[in-house]
Write a structure and sequence with these properties.
InterPro entries: EamA_dom (IPR000620), EmrE-like (IPR037185). By secondary structure, the chain is an all-alpha fold. 79% of the residues lie in helices and 0% in strands. The chain has one domain. α6 packs antiparallel against α12.
Amino acid sequence: MELWIIASVAAALFQSVRFMLQKHLAQVKLSAAGATFARFVYSAPLAGLILAVVLWSQRPDVGWPGPAFWAYGAVGGAAQITATVCTVMLFGRRNLAVGMTFIKSEVLLTALIGFVVLGEAVSGIGLLAIVLGVIGVLVLSGPLEGGRSWRRFLSPSAALGLGAGALFGVSAVFYRAASLEVMAQAPMLRALVTLAAVTMMQMLGMWVWLRFREPGEVGRVLGAWRSAGFIGLTSMAGTFCWFTAFTLQNAAYVKAVGQVELIFGVLATLLIFREKISGREYIGITLLALSILGLVALA
């Protein structure tokens, strides 16, 4: 199995854990921006330290990244921050299911943005596999409850979900562009350089933002280090896996395989919480699995 597939699946697993931790912080202790900041303030120093150790111990042949790297990284980092804030804000709103459904448009939007920004087209078979996966995700999301469901698609939750999906797509494509600017042969080294640079920019940018817009929130994040620290660790591990995959493959394919996190969630429901899986969920899992297997075979 190719490295980008392994990295995509691992990233999805880490992301599932991080979202659960972020939801807890957003509901109990921190604002949406504070819960988002937690993933960077604890991951950026560790990522920088790991990169420093690798550079000092192995002396790899890697040059200082040029302006394009920093520009791509800054845009991707800002998009990811905004998308994460939108996602955390969804956790406390009505019509959560509608918003989360729109977030799942991320894969299709990533394919479109990747074509516009990097000129990376998705093959016809690849597009069919991606669409099949999106359908599977929508089936897993379940039917909307209540009457006049169409009005829910005009709600603030829908806007937050669609905005988050688009911004996650922007971040994925620009992170791939940034990693390709790193002058190094090893894909994992390129991913590590990108990770350290981007998370440091995100940490500093959000620190300044919170100091002026939400005074005292930085202190609350630092005070919640027991929970927030785990967010930082899972964020760093997951982002490193994403960046490794982005370095090796089209971002749309990476994100499509990453949808396996939905299957992780259903399996956890079955194996850990001993809850039954409905026929609809079996259909969704089957469609999503076929999509992922198709992309793996295509690669």
